[in-house]
Design a protein that fits this description.
It is built from 11 helices and 15 strands. The protein is of the alpha+beta class.
Length: 377
């Protein structure tokens, strides 16, 4: 444990690093922020999902094992891979086709989502001078330095609303059955043309084995201002998916493309033979900070950090995420937003009443820093 009585600025810098500094595609994400669309902070939650989808593709070992032939994919491609148990290309045609989701390495996933959202936070405001990742320290996930002189110690809980599927053009010399596995070696996969399906817009990603695949080609597309109308369409569709997720609107087709959407409708099993025990996406993939276990852990961790630094007024605490707890905020977050705590040794008699002065009382967490609808006191 770091000595809470010391000025820890240098200590944090020594044990941490800047977000995504360890990833070769960090430069592509920087290009994304420098693009015309990247300068629009309102679109950050959508861009977070784009970057996370690319990161999922990049971090999934044995990618070739999850690819299936599909006749419903957009022209120029013949195979589909998803991070939910649903073929979105078939879903666009009204068909409930089960396709087992690809799974990124679980150990890398938390680190990825944490570093990506902190990268966005780093660019969120000119008042943020520095963001340091402390992941794995067991203390705090990150340190955020504010221009006012405040140091924010943060716990990060982040997860995308949508993880966009990968499309591939797989060379095949024979007729392949609909949703049969594409039998590929790793080297054969690297000779395939690819794209990311933004549910209405297909963005080409080039050859699987190309430089900084899949990030470079995606950002190249974003940087081309001629594509701004297509990207705006993607953003509007993302907003529609968010509304469907928040309202649990199962009449909206976008609802079943979001994470934590649960089971498909009854017709999926009755008409299309959906496996009886399989969901599209379960609660473990809850969006933003919406997973109840994550909320509980984050609340405790920020409280613990706050206790450690309770006599250092320039240290504050925050929960950081891409999106707030839309579904569980009312029950799990709102009740503790205005709670103040104090230390027993600070109780004093004031006008015959035992109490603690306001300057010695602290919030359970000072802020919820999200890319949309933050809590900033």
């Amino acid at each position: 444990m770091i000595n809470s009585g010391d000025d820890m600025s240098d200590a944090f810098d020594m044990q941490g690093h800047k977000p995504l500094a360890e990833y070769p595609w960090n430069t592509d994400v920087e290009r994304l922020f420098a693009s015309s669309i990247g300068k629009n902070k309102q679109i950050y939650p959508f861009l977070f999902d784009c970057v996370m989808s690319l990161a999922y593709i990049d971090s999934t070992a044995g990618l070739e094992k999850s690819i299936e032939y599909c006749a419903n994919v957009p022209s120029g491609f013949n195979a589909h891979m998803s991070f939910i148990n649903l073929c979105s290309s078939c879903h666009d045609q009204g068909v409930w086709q089960y396709q087992k989701a690809a799974k990124p390495q679980s150990g890398a996933l938390g680190k990825l989502s944490s570093e990506v959202v902190l990268k966005f936070v780093e660019h969120l405001s000119t008042d943020i001078e520095k963001v340091i990742v402390l992941g794995g320290s067991g203390y705090a996930d990150a340190v955020i330095r504010h221009r006012s002189g405040i140091t924010i110690l943060a716990e990060v809980k982040a997860a995308p609303l949508i993880t966009y599927p990968l499309l591939l053009s797989v060379l095949s010399l024979k007729q392949n059955q609909q949703h049969s596995k594409a039998i590929l070696t790793a080297s054969q996969l690297k000779s395939c043309q690819s794209a990311i399906d933004m549910h209405g817009v297909v963005i080409p990603l080039g050859l699987v084995g190309s430089q900084n695949w899949p990030f470079k080609a995606f950002v190249d597309f974003v940087e081309d201002d001629d594509n701004s109308k297509l990207l705006n369409k993607c953003f509007l569709n993302w907003q529609e998916a968010r509304r469907a997720y928040v309202n649990k609107d199962k009449t909206n087709p976008f609802y079943y493309l979001t994470n934590a959407c649960g089971n498909p409708p009854i017709e999926a099993k009755r008409v299309y033979g959906w496996p009886s025990n399989e969901v599209i996406s379960d609660g473990k993939t809850s969006v933003g900070m919406d997973r109840t276990d994550d909320i509980k852990k984050a609340v405790y961790q920020t409280l613990k950090i706050g206790i450690t630094h309770q006599y250092q007024r320039h240290y504050t605490t925050a929960i950081v995420s891409n999106l707030p707890a839309y579904r569980h905020g009312l029950d799990y977050v709102d009740p503790v937003l205005t709670v103040l705590w104090g230390n027993e040794v600070d109780i004093q008699e004031i006008a015959g009443v035992s109490g603690i002065s306001r300057e010695k009382l602290h919030y359970v967490f000072d802020y919820i820093i999200t890319l949309s609808d933050p809590v900033l006191r």
